[in-house]
Amino acid sequence: MIIEKIATTPKVSIGIPTYNRADLLRRSIESALGQDYPNIEVLVSDNASTDRTPEVCQFYTDTHGSRIKYIRQPVNLGATANFSKVLEMASGEFFMWLGDDDWIDSSYVKSCMRELLSDPALSLVSGSPRYYRSGVPACDGRWFNLLQERWWLRVLVYYIKVSDNGMFYGLMRTAQIRQINLSNTMGGDWLLIAGLSALGKLKTVPDTHAHRELGGATLSYRQIARSMGLSRMQAMFPMVSIAKAAWVDIVFKGAAYESRSIWGKLVIGSSVFGLILLKRPVFWILAMKFIIKKKLFPSV
Known about the structure:
46% of the residues lie in helices and 19% in strands. The protein is an alpha/beta fold.
């Protein structure tokens, strides 16, 4: 039975990349260690923090032994590389990221694993995201399922529906996620989950939650660009940047799409490009003003 499999196997790795959040990190680690799923390892990669992060992590390695592994980077690698580091550390068959100021319900891993073990066609299972501002509930994130049979339809529906990165903190199959590079670009988390949707189905378990602090790991586009070393233009026009990156990922770079025909990738990539820009109608208003001003309408 599925319940028996959950009680014994397989191992789940929870990766927590962190930088200078010693106080909030405790809550994140405690929620990972407090899961009612028994076979868990917690992996913390410290991006050269200058606060008390090493002391906090040392406490947990001393008190929880092999259940938690801590590495400290000698220099700050940037946010994306630090997220990749915890994935490199993972020895579990399944993996999830957890923000260093976020926390998950004690049932989160077990609830997601129940779904993953019952359906090998699933690439990712996520709980429902809830957002907070300074510890006060702010809003619930948007959740949805991608259970369509055709890969391209799942990718298109994902880009239509996605509005936050809540699914990024779901449970994934480690072998699959390692096929997909986490891109150091605006919307790299969207690209990664879209890639997973090309490899398999995505599902949300609405009655277990990932609790996320706005302004922490959940940053503004400008803060994201700064933490990733991106240009001001990418921060000013994030949807244009994401649309371009998604098109390149689908058509040329993404390992999740490499077995697909070039024509199929061109059609889906171009469709996704337009769908992402439609998330910011102001872009189209400015474009139409430019066309009218420059008299670029074709003559009839």
